[in-house]
Amino acid sequence: MIVTIDGPAGAGKSSAARMLAQRLGFDFLDTGAMYRAVTLAALRANCDLADQNALAGLLETIHLDMPPGRVMLNGENIADAIRTPAVTAASGPIASSPVVRTRLVDWQRKIADGRDFVCEGRDQGTIVFPHALCKFFLVADPLERARRRHRELTQRGDAITLEEIVKSQEERDARDAARDIAPMVPAPDAIQLDSTQLTLDEVVARMEQEVRARQPNRAPPLPPVAPISPGDPLARMDTAWFKAWHECLYLPYHLLFTLAFSIRKQGMRNMPWTGPALLISNHQSYLDPLIVGLVARRPLVYLARRTLFRNPYFGWMIRSMNAVPIDQEGIGLDGIRTILVQLQRGRPVLVFPEGRRTDDGAMLPLKPGVHLLIKRTQAPIVPVGIAGAYGAWPIWRKYPWPAPLFLPAGPGTISVSLGKPLDASRYAAMPREEALQELFDKIHTEQQRAENIRRK
């Protein structure tokens, strides 16, 4: 689904688009930043902005990427550099260039193909995405727009007067509305909003209401993350006595698993020692959370079906290892919210994105919920591979089958490999299926590494 937000500078399009995308779980595309990036590249190359052939040649040398919160031009983050007065003043010829607009419109459509996007600019609803399901045209009083722009530039340290901004803004509005190519006008079916007397939250709330009215078959939004409360069963994780209790439990558990399953491990240094982390692992047996916890060394939070807590001993054991009961298997909305709460509190969380244990030892496809989860968090992602746990406790066996330390590697020998942390923003910006496939490959690679050390 595509949502477009058009309108003049200073109306609040970018801020509203980012917040709306976050609330909807959509990606955000700042098209104005793309034009500014081309402008900056042209200025750096001393390119004649009126020479269409020169601009066409320049575009062939540009690699533009738009991960969340960044604008990458040939590998350099230029998010701040494109907001200078010099770039703003030179962006007019670039925005009016037929060569540039044709190329960027093509890039924007390719980026958004098959994905949920909130796009903002000046011609998104009229030229780029004329068939978007929901379109907005956001306006504000000219003086209020100039004040917002002045505050933004002043906070950034740019020396410019309000009068200069008003003059520049008037010239730009007239130019954008009168240009022959993609003029800034509202689409016939666009919803017009005046943000002059509205807060950002009020603007986004109205937009969200309109979008959700047009997507009745989509999943409901995630509820807001609740603040920590004394009744939180995992509040104990932040106390000194729990940390001591975890150290006391770690030693006997480590000894037990080493003797019973000849546990072998690698990559322990890849585990972030502080702050939030999202560990994604293949799922072979009931032993997996305990095994990964032993290798990660830090107290982990993980999800477990509520039915597993019915067994008095097993339920006590997994609860002591910070298992959180949920009603469904896999990563649903309830599970995503639980994970986000724990990550927000700086805790490492273990998830099994396959959704359930393997039937035959082979990895299952990853569930889409893990991509939505990654889009909601900036925590580093640690791929984890487990080998041998299926042989130790397959899904069809009632009890585990140990492999004592003094015996050669056999079906019950277990090994774990932790990969290097991954940048969540990179996967959040990727199309869902592409991200899921690459994450699957990362986990599978660690599983193969674990299998190699298991057989040594």
Q: How many E-type strands?
A: 15
> Strands of the biggest beta sheet: in what spatial order?
9-15-14-10-13-11-12
CATH topology name of the largest domain, in short, is Glycerol-3-phosphate (1)-acyltransferase
Indicate the low-confidence ranges by residue numbers: none
Q: How much helicity do the residues have?
A: 40-55%
Strand content: 5-15%
Q: Radius of gyration, rounded?
A: 26 Å
CATH superfamily of the largest domain: Glycerol-3-phosphate (1)-acyltransferase
In round numbers, the mean pLDDT is 82
The helix-and-strand class reads alpha/beta
What is the count of structural domains? 2
Describe the structure.
This protein has 456 residues and is an alpha/beta fold. The chain has 17 helices and 15 strands. It has a seven-stranded mixed β-sheet, sandwiched between helices. Helix 12 links the parallel strand 11 (301-305) and strand 12 (323-326). The longest helix is centred in the last third of the chain and has 23 residues, at 432-454. The mean pLDDT is 82.
What order do the helices and strands come in, and which of them pair?
Layout: E1 2-6, H1 13-24, E2 27-30, H2 31-44, H3 52-59, E3 64-65, E4 72-73, E5 76-77, H4 85-96, H5 98-112, E6 117-121, H6 124-128, E7 134-139, H7 142-155, H8 162-178, E8 191-194, H9 200-213, H10 240-261, E9 264-266, E10 277-281, H11 288-296, E11 301-305, H12 312-320, E12 323-326, H13 333-344, E13 348-351, H14 369-375, E14 381-387, H15 389-392, E15 415-418, H16 424-428, H17 432-454
Parallel strand pairs: 1-6, 1-7, 2-6, 7-8, 9-15, 10-13, 10-14, 11-12, 11-13
Antiparallel strand pairs: 3-4, 4-5, 14-15
Helix pairs in contact: 1-9, 2-4, 2-5, 3-5, 7-8, 13-14
